[in-house]
Design goal:
The chain is mainly α and 60 residues long. 60% of the residues lie in helices and 0% in strands. The relative contact order is 0.17.
Length: 60
């Protein structure tokens, strides 16, 4: 695991949304998304984060 992947992993385990992780690491949300998907494929347990209306408790 690279240093960048370690940092993404650490923040993702704290259940931070992708844009927040990206902002803290100074990169794009897409880079964080790909990094998380790579780590998941390698067997790392990263929780899924609810986003949008589901996170706000709105029923649609």
């Amino acid at each position: 695991m690279t240093h960048f992947q370690q940092r993404v992993f650490k923040l993702a385990r704290q259940k931070l949304p992708r844009p927040v992780i990206a902002e803290r690491l100074g990169t794009s949300s897409n880079v964080v998304k790909v990094t998380i998907s790579v780590l998941r494929r390698r067997g790392y347990d990263i929780p899924r984060i609810k986003s949008g209306p589901a996170a706000w408790g709105w029923a649609i």
